[in-house]
Amino acid sequence: MVMEEKEEERNSNIRIVVADAVHEMYVDEILQTIREAARKRGTGIAERTHEYLATKMKEGKAIMALDGDRFAGFSYIETWGNKHYVTTSGLIVHPDYQGMGVARRIKDYTFTLARLRWPHAKIFSLTSGDAVMKMNTDLGYVPVSFNQLTDDEAFWRGCRGCINNDILELKQRKFCVCTGMLWDPDKHHGEPTSLEVIKDVMKTLVLRGIE
Ligand SMILES: CC(C)(COP(=O)(O)OP(=O)(O)OC[C@H]1O[C@@H](n2cnc3c(N)ncnc32)[C@H](O)[C@@H]1OP(=O)(O)O)[C@@H](O)C(=O)NCCC(=O)NCCS
C-alpha cells in the first residue's frame, strides 16, 4: 500500500507535454533507451534517426514525460496515406519510471493529439508488446491484418530497419511478428476522451498555432 502511494506520488510529479524544439536535447537518450529495450526483449524495432525524432518534436507530433528535467518517457504520432491514417509509435518509458502508469498517460496524450488533429483518420499501431496491446484494447483498438492498414510506401519503409523485415516481405506485408491494431473513428462516434488531456493538448496547439 505504502509502495503504491509512493509510485502514485512519483507519477504525479511527472509532467506530460507536447514536445517542441527545446526537447531535441533528449533525442539521443530516447533513441538509446529504445535500442536498449529492444536488445533486452530480443525484438525488432523500426530504427529512427536523430533528425526524424527532432522533426516530430518541432512539428508538435511528439509527447514527452519529464520528471523535472529528466527524461521519463516518449512517443510520437505521424500521418500516412494523405492523412487517412495516423500512427502512434516509438512508445518508450525509461526503466526508472516503468510500472507507474507513465505509458498509459503518454498513450492518452498521443491518442488525444491524433484525434484532435486528424478527427477523420484511422489510428493504428504495430506492436509486439503486451502492455501496448492492453492499452490499445482499452482504448477500443482491434487487431487487424495488415491489409487494413495504410498502403503508404513511406510507412512500410520504416520497417526496413527492423530485424524482422524479411518476414514482412515474405508475407507480402499481410502479417509479421507485430500485431496490427486499428481504431476506426466511424465506429466510435461521440466517444469522449479525458477532458483534462483535451484541454491541455488544445492549449498547446493553440499557443503554437498548430492546426
Ligand atoms: C511497455 C512500456 C512502454 C510500458 O510502460 P509503463 O509506464 O511501465 O506502463 P504503465 O505502467 O503505464 O502500464 C500500462 C498498462 O500496461 C500494463 N503492463 C505494463 N507492462 C506490462 C507487461 N510487461 N506485460 C503486460 N502488461 C503490462 C500495465 O499493467 C498497465 O495496465 P493497467 O493500467 O490496466 O494495469 C515500458 O515497459 C517500456 O518502455 N518498455 C520497453 C519498450 C517497449 O516495449 N515499447 C513498446 C513497443 S511495442
Q: Percent helix among the residues?
A: 40-55%
- How many extended strands? 7
- Return the structural class: alpha+beta
The coarse silhouette is: globular
CATH topology: Aminopeptidase
Calculate the mean pLDDT score and round it.
Answer: 92
Low-pLDDT ranges: none
What would CATH call the homologous superfamily?
Gcn5-related N-acetyltransferase (GNAT)
- Rg, rounded, reads 17 Å
What is the correct CATH architecture? 3-Layer(aba) Sandwich
Query: Total helix count?
Result: 8
Fraction of residues in β-strands: 15-25%
Distance between the ends: 44 Å
The ordered H/E elements are HEHHEEEHEHEHHEH
Profile the largest sheet.
7 strands, mixed
- Give the strand line-up of the largest sheet: 1-2-3-4-5-7-6
Number of domains: 1
Explain this structure.
There is one protein chain. The protein is of the alpha+beta class. The protein has a single domain, classed as Gcn5-related N-acetyltransferase (GNAT) (Aminopeptidase). Helix content is 41%, strand content 21%. The protein is built from eight helices and seven strands; from the N terminus they run αβααβββαβαβααβα. The protein has helices at 2-12, 27-41, 50-58, 102-117, 130-139, 153-157, 165-170, 195-208; strands spanning 14-18, 62-67, 70-80, 85-93, 122-127, 142-144, 179-183. The chain has a seven-stranded mixed β-sheet, with helices on both faces. The model has no long low-confidence stretch (mean pLDDT 92). Coenzyme A binds next to strand 4, helix 4 and helix 5. Residues 37, 91-93, 98-104, 127-132, 134-135 line the site of coenzyme A.
